[in-house]
Specification:
- The protein is mainly α.
- 86% of the residues lie in helices and 0% in strands.
């Protein structure tokens, strides 16, 4: 595996270092230039990043890069084919990713993405912010704000008209009262006198109720004080009872301690008595052991005397059997000597007969020797031929084994190289997958960032619209209070002027917070609105 990782030699690195890229090179131009240049166009680099491919992995490497000192041409060719096929696969995947990017760019350009980029560049904010400002959600919020503004305007107009009508009624009533007679003034004075008497009675009644409340509070304080003293006495009695209980508990604890001490003394006495009984028992057992040992010694001496008697009897039997064996051996020797004499006589007769047979056999053996010599010569010749054949077969077998070993070594080398290439392929795929996952995470993070920008912009616009709505409501209430203050001031001065109030009402309704100018004059991102109103691009729908 390490040999595969160091496949390219220093010469190829020197050659690659001498190559300088003077123009932009894309994936389509790579094969035309022989694959010896680095890809540097932005779209091609983006496609390589999406596929987890490094631009250096797409460069063509000649077979000389994979040649090593003790590496066979077959393995060099295998390495070259593997890395070339892997390079072509990565190049094809990168081209597919590049085509997909081109298709996406074409599709986005058809959807006025270029105008969106111009707006983002001119306004200095992101595309997500522009999309958020031109989204249907904000249009709906603006329409809701306009509806609420119209509702607030109608309410304010109705409230101010009601106040104006009330002021006009007061003005007409004031004129009517000035033209009426003085009886009404007298009646009012009488009514005010009665109201004053009634108020005096109410004040006296309130003072009486105040005195009753103070007396009731004093009585409650006295009752609370008595209750407090009662609680103190109860607590004192409870303390005495608790002290008595603690004293009784202490006496019980003392009695319990005495009882435990007496129990410990009794237990110690019983333990001493038990120890004395155990000592007496041990002395008794030692006496029994001595008596048992004396009995065992007597039994051992009796067994030794009995064993000595048995040993003497056995020695007597052995001596008698030895004498019987010697007598039997003497008889056998005598029989053997007699048989040997008979055998010598027989051997002599056989020797004579054998001498005669040898004379006859000498003749036959000479003839047999001649025949055997011929047979032996033929057999020797056949053995020599067979030995030569066996040697030839052994040489052929050894040659075959040598070829088999060489084939086996080549196969093992090929298998090791193939396993190394497979593991290298796995490492390349794992590394590529890791880079693809990193690119995917970066793209997802970028999309999340854009969506966060869009959401922040939407929330900011919504908050701004809510603030405008609250501002309009506040201005409406303030305008109503101004009209009420003016009406009250005229009522206090008893100089009514409904036309001045009507002019003030018209000026209030012409304010910007009660018209559609509120959305155009107060905007959170004025640059975006400026670009949008210049008409460079139509509103882009929210994605």
């Amino acid at each position: 595996r390490s040999q595969i990782r160091l496949a390219c030699s220093c010469e190829f690195d020197d050659v690659m270092a001498d190559i300088t890229v003077k123009a932009s090179v894309s994936l389509d131009d790579l094969e035309e230039r022989g694959g010896t240049v680095l890809v540097n166009s932005p779209r091609s680099l983006q496609a390589c990043k999406l596929e987890g491919v490094l631009p250096q992995e797409l460069m063509h490497k000649p077979p000389e890069c994979f040649a090593e000192k003790n590496l066979s041409p077959r393995l060099v060719k295998l390495r070259y084919d593997f890395f070339e096929a892997k390079r072509r696969d990565l190049l094809a995947a990168s081209k597919r990713a590049r085509d997909a990017l081109i298709a996406d760019e074409k599709r986005t350009s058809e959807n006025s993405s270029q105008q969106l980029e111009v707006m983002a560049r001119e306004s200095g904010v992101s595309k997500g912010t522009i999309l958020a400002l031109n989204s249907d959600g904000l249009r709906l919020e603006r329409s809701k704000l306009l509806k609420a503004q119209q509702t607030e305007r109608k309410w304010l107009q109705g409230a101010l008209n009601a106040e104006l009508k009330q002021l006009q009624d007061l003005e007409n009533g004031f004129i009517f009262h000035e033209e009426s007679n003085n009886d009404e003034a007298e009646r009012l004075r009488e009514q005010s006198r009665r109201i004053k008497e009634l108020n005096d009675k109410r004040a006296a009644e309130a003072e009486r109720k105040q005195m009753e409340a103070e007396a009731r509070q004093k009585l409650e304080k006295q009752v609370a004080k008595e209750e407090f003293h009662k609680q103190l006495m109860d607590m004192k009695r409870k303390g005495e009872l608790e002290a008595q209980k603690q004293k009784e508990a202490y006496m019980r604890q003392v009695a319990e301690a005495d009882r435990k001490r007496q129990a410990e003394i009794d237990k110690e006495r019983k333990r001493e008595e038990e120890y004395q009984r155990m000592e007496a028992r041990k002395s008794e057992m030692r006496a029994l052991d001595l008596r048992r040992m004396d009995i065992l010694e007597q039994q051992r001496l009796a067994k030794q005397q009995q064993f000595a008697g048995l040993q003497a009897k056995r020695d007597d039997r052995i001596m008698s059997s030895i004498q019987a064996n010697m007598e039997m051996e003497q008889r056998r020797r005598e029989d053997f000597e007699e048989k040997q004499a008979m055998e010598a006589i027989r051997e002599e007769r056989l020797m004579q007969a054998k001498a005669l047979q040898q004379e006859e056999g000498a003749k036959k053996s000479y003839q047999l020797m001649l025949r055997r010599k011929n047979i032996q010569d033929e057999a020797t010749k056949r053995m020599e031929d067979r030995r030569n054949a066996i040697l030839e077969q052994q040489e052929e077998t050894e040659y075959r084994l040598l070829e088999h070993e060489q084939k086996k070594e080549r196969y093992l080398d090929f298998k090791r190289e193939l396993d190394g290439l497979r593991s290298r392929n796995k490492e390349i795929n794992v590394e590529r997958q890791r880079r693809r996952e990193e690119t995917t995470r970066e793209m997802i993070a970028e999309q999340v960032r854009k969506k966060d920008d869009k959401i922040d912009t939407l929330n900011a616009e919504r908050r701004r619209m809510m603030e405008l709505r609250r501002y309009a409501q506040t201005e409406a209430y303030r305008a109503r209070e101004q009209v009420k203050t003016e009406i009250m001031r005229q009522r206090i001065r008893s100089k009514f002027n409904s036309k001045a109030v009507e002019k003030q009402l018209q000026s209030i309704l012409q304010r910007d917070c009660f018209t559609e100018k509120l959305l155009t004059k107060s905007v959170s991102t004025p640059n975006i609105r400026t670009v949008g109103h210049q008409g460079a691009a139509p509103p882009v729908e929210a994605q």
